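P.,

For your records, the input lines for the assembly:
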Amino acid sequence: MMSLVATCLFMVLMCLGLPIAASLGLAAGAVIWWYDLPLAVIAQRTVNSLDSTPLLAVPMFIFAASIFNTAGITQHLFDFIRMIVGRIRGGLGYVTILTHLIFSGISGAALADIGALGSIQIRMMRQQGYKDEFSAGICMAASTLGPIFPPSIPLVIYATTAEISAVRLMLAGIIPALVIAAVLMAQVAWIARREGLPVDTVEVTRSSFLRQTWIALPAILAPVILIGGMMAGFLGSTEAAGITVVYAILIGLFVYRKLNWTNFIESARETVLACASILLIVGVSELFAWVLAIDQIPTLAAQFLITLSSNPWVLLLIANVILLAAGTILEPLPAILLLTPILAPGLTQAGVDPIHLGIVVVLNLMIGLLTPPVGMSLYMVSNIGRIPLERVMAGAIPFIVSLIIALAIVTFVPAFSTWLPSLVMK
Amino acid sequence: MTHPFRATILWLCRMAEWVAIVALIAATALIMAQIVAREVFVTGLSWADELARYAGLTVIFMAVPALLARNEHVKVDMFHDMMPPRPRRFFNITNDVLMVVFAAMFLIAGWQFMQRAARFSTPALGMPNLIFYMPAAIGMLLLLLVAIDRAVAALTSAPKDEADAP
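Structure tokens returned:
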């Protein structure tokens, strides 16, 4: 009963436009006060959940991505990949997917990726005669790669909530991200043939290609260093993130020479604001999850799921439906923090690998970013691309279908998620 | 002209934002120090881990008031934006008042929590808990002030003014 009241109150406050952190905090606080539980727990749970070394990876990843962006890496990556795949029919569609894939090895959040890459991609596609619906759709769909391919803020937060290794989980995201990229590229190929998408106008000469490769190389090496460090086993996720920040500063200063004191501080300012925005929600969600735990919701949910079926495939299917539905009305981070304790015990009890489940949960919720009413990617692309929201929504639909196909593959072939971490980390 | 109360709060928010920036840079340096200590000098720095976590808490809570002052907290404004002007103004005021309640609730809870926790210190550095939890207390106090300023501005603004409070 207590959990039901808290959940309803949270949904009402959130829909009225109150910040999500305050909606969660007030809903939990109201229940704690009403049921005469100790008020001290509000501050204790919120602050103590944020006093965490694994969560320190979040500011580090945001900081690194912001510095890379300031150093002008996004444009170099875009130009480099245009030279490789631009001259295929529908080339800018592939360029969009591949730049997101490489940039996702630097950044760890879908919306940050759209912010960094979206305006360049949409402007270029518009200049070359692509429909705005296609540009918006492919940009949003490709941004789901960001939180699946390491580094990833949602995966770090999932790992903290589910108490599993963040490094294992991030390594588990590599192959699923490649699967998503492959499915999206297949769709671009199909649309290119059916609708006769344009070929890129980029001129490629041997010398220009070599020059562009040389310029883009330090940016491409960033994910290699990050993933290599984690795979070699001598860096934890937070340490890998810290190294990436230092690497970003060094190449920003000495290779691209665009980083100066002013834009470094501006990157730090952007980071602290983004970080406060994300992590306050994380802290307060922990408090909300505590209210659910007092009502024994995770235990009851686990028992309920097991009564529905003991077959892990059926349970995964049910989890996908619940998560896709939740993704339409909840932001990914609160959804991870609230639903993980509810879904994970039942599914892992039925034999689902917790690492595999982490990838499935995050991918589901990233698809939710493309669906109204709480599809933040829709609003962001509409805003930065100056495309009416209804056209952005229309553009999202075919790509949501592809992402669900990719989700089905990732869900029903667990080896795509579990093989790499088990190979690297015995 | 900006009201002196608002000008002071905005100045405090800017100062808090600077503290968060310094804490972010310190956290990065402390993480690097731990890697160097372990890989080069084969020694662990438990104090650096604790200090990095402290810096992390400082980053979050010192930037929270600036987020509200800039109206940049993550929220779902789709339904709110679809409302006609009068109910929208009503809910703007309600939301600003609820932010005051949220910050006040957190501070009261923090006060109660510290009655017990203030007697203890952190394990590695022996830092009194009062100092360890100070960034959260200061951040939420400043959030309360920003929220009060916004709520007062929303309540006293002319009804035709549909824009969000500053």
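Two observations worth noting. Chain B has a mean pLDDT of 88. Chain B has one domain: 4-163.

Regards
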